[in-house]
Amino acid sequence: MSDDAGARLRARLAEVEARLARQRRELDGLVDAARDANVDDEHDPEGATLAWERQQTATLVAHAESEREGLLAALDRLAAGTYGRCEVCHEPIPAARLEVRPAATRCVRHAG
């Protein structure tokens, strides 16, 4: 499982890092556009849309950063030999769960 898990984690990490880079560029563009536009978010009909877009993109960036951190932690667990074990009961996490959530730290029973 170690080689397959490592390859899967690294592939997922590469996807997340690429998505994160795109989202950060998009957020930077929105911030720059708002700065140059001199838009009054409260009174301009387009201002609310721009503020919403900035917040939406910032939220996507935060989620991608969190996923990235989880994947890096999973790679650390893999190196330590603890990847794929529930942090609560120490039983193996089902392969199907790790396939869907490669950074999972808990089995289904303890996920809640």
Automatic annotation (TrEMBL):
<feature type="zinc finger region" description="dksA C4-type">
    <location>
        <begin position="86"/>
        <end position="110"/>
    </location>
</feature>
<feature type="coiled-coil region">
    <location>
        <begin position="6"/>
        <end position="33"/>
    </location>
</feature>
<feature type="domain" description="Zinc finger DksA/TraR C4-type">
    <location>
        <begin position="81"/>
        <end position="108"/>
    </location>
</feature>
<dbReference type="InterPro" id="IPR000962">
    <property type="entry name" value="Znf_DskA_TraR"/>
</dbReference>
<keyword id="KW-0479">Metal-binding</keyword>
<dbReference type="Pfam" id="PF01258">
    <property type="entry name" value="zf-dskA_traR"/>
</dbReference>
<keyword id="KW-0175">Coiled coil</keyword>
<keyword id="KW-0863">Zinc-finger</keyword>
<keyword id="KW-0862">Zinc</keyword>
<protein>
    <submittedName>
        <fullName>TraR/DksA family transcriptional regulator</fullName>
    </submittedName>
</protein>
